[in-house]
Amino acid sequence: MLSIIVPVRNESENLKSVFDYFNDNLKNLNFEVLIINDFSIDDTLLKAETLAQSYKNFRICNNLKKGLGGAINLGVLESKGNYIAIMMADQSDDINDLIKYFDLIKTEKYDAVLGSRFMKESKVNDYPLQKLVLNRIFNFFVSLIFWNKYNDYTNAFKIYTKKALLEIMPLISESFNVFLEIPLKIISRNYDYITVPINWMGRKKGESKFKIKELRSKYLFTLIYCFIEKNLLNIKK
Fold this sequence. Notes:
Blueprint: E1 2-8, H1 15-25, E2 31-37, H2 44-52, E3 58-62, H3 68-78, E4 83-86, H4 95-107, E5 112-116, E6 124-125, H5 129-145, E7 158-161, H6 162-168, H7 178-188, E8 193-197, E9 200-201, H8 212-233
Parallel strand pairs: 1-2, 1-4, 2-3, 5-8, 6-9
Antiparallel strand pairs: 4-7, 5-7
Helix pairs in contact: 7-8
């Protein structure tokens, strides 16, 4: 089974389209979607619980520790599938890439499939220029520090075996930096993975929760933590 973790915070206006997005496109897969409510202050939780009554394969969880890190930790523990994908509620990721992920990780027996929005075959639309420039600089810096050619560490949308995620838990990052922590641990601990091109489209509804100024220190913390783990603690698979 494929488990899809979707953290949500104040995404009430997006929820119906999120449910339809997965329900309409994954009919041929054995899947579940875990909607993780991350301390929303609007009616996201109530609306999600109401929608889940009319849709199969959807479960609603209330985050216990505020932040994306807590949401991902909870989603992994609550998931029923052997494979876990993480996707955001803005529907910026291509559902066809998710299907490709799932087929690859099952067929080729990888521990992870790491998508990149910045490979030759990738298509990216409506990416804010400032965010794009900072993204490319930071990811290049990370690739140098960890001496690895992967170029999209900070992208949330990836797929892992549940076994691999359980082995690298607990995830210590509290915010968007959790999406840096996970692939760095996968790569540093020598798990088997493949990198593939994926597509990305900018959010059409709602407001992005990603705040560059607020997250700089968090990303730096995660980078230092993973560097120490790799070079001093030498933790392996």
